[in-house]
Amino acid sequence: MTLHPAVAWLFRFALWITTDEVPGVLDALERDYPVLRGAIRDRVTERRRPFVRFFACEQDLSHVSSDTLVPAAVVAGKEPFLIVGALAGG
């Protein structure tokens, strides 16, 4: 499988987070990578875009409330916080 060059470029970087809430992780990502602003969340409402999912420690964090804490293993850097584009259809 070959990744699109822009996607492959993103995989080369790690984002160190200093927050323990899901919106804080996304804020840090959009701050460090401004080109992603509006791609993961709506710029105005900051709601998650359709077909974008968040996972951490084998948990789906896509529909959690904004004050939900990121698992401690993610904050400690032991586990990744995954942002995955979902597909629909059969």
Tags for this model:
single chain; 90 residues; alpha+beta; Ubiquitin-like (UB roll); three-stranded antiparallel sheet; 3 helices; 23% helix; 13% strand; globular
Largest sheet: 3 strands, antiparallel
- List the domain count as a whole number: 1
CATH class placement: Alpha Beta
Oligomer: single chain
Give the overall shape, derived from the CA principal axes.
Answer: globular
Return the string of H and E elements: HHEEHE
Mean pLDDT across every amino acid position: 79
Distance between the termini: 20 Å
The amount of helix comes to: 10-25%
What is the beta-strand fraction? 5-15%
Largest sheet strand order: 2-1-3
Assign the structural class, choosing from mainly alpha, mainly beta, alpha/beta, alpha+beta, or little secondary structure.
alpha+beta
Q: Spans of 5+ residues with little confidence (pLDDT < 50)?
A: none
Count of runs of 4 or more consecutive helical residues: 3
